[in-house]
Amino acid sequence: MGKLSTHVLDTVHGVPAQGVALELYRLDGDSRTLLAQTATNQDGRCDAPLLSGPALTRGVYELVFHAGDYFARKGVPLPEPRFVDQVVLRFGVANPDENYHVPLVVTPWTWSTYRGS
After folding, report:
1. Catalysed reaction(s) (predicted)?
2. Residue 114: which pLDDT band, with cuts at 50, 70 and 90?
């Protein structure tokens, strides 16, 4: 049985990003269903998988990370409107028996992701 997990790395400060609020949605056509709402811990990870076992199904998902709020709390000077504010990662799960680790590497000016395990 597979699982979905994430973590956030703050490359401005070179640390795991603690306290980043995030939501997980499942997309089905025009429908968007909230599945989880949490925040990252001191290691920049969530305390538990976002989905695991039978809750992880084949389909399209979105992770929404509130990166702009995180950097504002850290005292980083940000323009208004923020260049990077909410980072929305849309990804597909083709095989729910596999592990899907979807990390975010972020600054106020750029972000990237990859599929980890």
Report:
1. 5-hydroxyisourate + H2O = 5-hydroxy-2-oxo-4-ureido-2,5-dihydro-1H-imidazole-5-carboxylate + H(+)
2. very high
Q: In what order do the strands lie in the sheet with 15-16?
A: 15-16, 8-10, 104-106, 111-113
Can you read off the two tokens belonging to residue 114? 């990859």
For residues 112 and 67, give the distance between their C-alpha atoms in angstroms, rounded to a whole number: 12
Q: Where are the alpha helices (DSSP H) in 26-91?
A: 67-73
CA distances from 27 to 3, 58, 64, 86 (A): 18, 11, 13, 18
Q: Residue 71: what are its φ and ψ, rounded to 5°? A: -65, -35
3-state secondary structure (DSSP) of residue 22: strand
* CA–CA gap between residue 114 and residue 109 (Å, rounded): 18
- Asked if pLDDT for residue 117 goes beyond 90, the answer is no
Token output for 22: 């995030």
